[in-house]
Task: structure prediction
Amino acid sequence: MLSIFSQNPVDKNRSHLKNLISMAMADGTMDEREWDLLNEIARKLKLTEEDINLIQRNPDLIENIIPRRHKEKVQQLYDLVCLMIADYDIDEGELRFCHKMAEKLKLDPLVVDDLIDQVRIYVEQQKDPDKILDDIL
Result:
């Protein structure tokens, strides 16, 4: 069930983590790089590896929460894109998942393609990809 009213930060972060786990599993596997990045993002969200395991085992217990603020929506989409390319392979299922998430976040799905291009440019130029959001928002 989607909710635009419940904006409890912990619930919102768990919802985001649920989406990240779903995206990581869209190609059927989660490799070590994806797992490491998932843990890194979870720590930034003040969640633990235990939270990841719980959400992975029981995703239906976590409510889908759409952030209200545009910046949070883009941040969530950015995290999804980074996780998608963490294994250096953009799987068609993962890309479709990111496009669907953009639509659920009320963003143009083309933002996904733009974020992929921006991450590639930053990596090629040896810039910190985490600075992308500062530059585009």
About this structure: The CA atoms of residues 78 and 115 lie 7 Å apart.
